[in-house]
Amino acid sequence: MNSALNILVTGACGQLGNEMQLQAAANSQHSWHFTDVATGRVDGVFAVSPLDITDPAAIDTFVQQKSIDIIVNCAAYTAVDRAESEPEKAHLLNATAPGYLAAAVQRRCGHLIQISTDYVFDGTAHIPYTEDCPTCPASVYGLTKLAGEEAVVTANPSAMIIRTAWLYSRFGNNFMKTMLRLGREKDTLGVIFDQIGTPTYARDLAAAIMTAINSGIQPGTYHFSDEGVCSWFDFTLAIHRMAGINTCRVRPLHTAEYPTPAARPHYSVLDKSKIKATYHLEIPHWETSLQACLKEFLL
User: What is the rounded distance in angstroms from the CA atom of residue 170 to the CA atom of residue 96?
Assistant: First the structure.
């Protein structure tokens, strides 16, 4: 692959988009273009341009004018519960729009890196999910993300799909930041203990994406999360311990005690063997990455 590439990152103002900006700053051999529905400089280090990814003509114009070689699609409809009442909007952003992006960069013989989710599985397994495990989404969000995977592969067979889970960072809204706030505000806090997965620091995912770009994108579906396994309850205890929050008692809840509009996978641990073997990745344990994120966030 050429050493210098023209790369478009959509959803640049979100968690992963901001982490991709940090990766871009350290990889200036490439020409970077960051877009979102918003404009201007938000949290990151690059100016963000407007681009409506639901407008195929606008995407085509941008991709052709900027001679884009790779699109990293960090944009998505991620309001899991609200998706149950807004299925059309979720499908537009999670399925239709990725298909437009894939088709546009395909016309330049380029690649799309599409970010997907553990929600494409129903969470009834008891061993980590590999990429070839049967999909069976149990929510509108999961259904639309799976439809996005299918639209991307149909439009661009050279695309790379990366499924991830439990994403957090110092940017945007996420579980880590919510638990920090609630831990300081409340005396007691109930957190689900019977949903199992792996917290993933968005910076680790962004670094893996950067490795794929610099090594040469190998098409296909991959799984990425940090190493290790825990429940949301365990994750919360670790957040509070590392942040020095000791005035809030965290108690475990069954899923049935905290009903939500969208069903969550009870078990969504992802097997990362394929991406580790393909790109020779050394992935940190989730507690190591959480410590690093909190150290930066709490400065």
Answer: 29
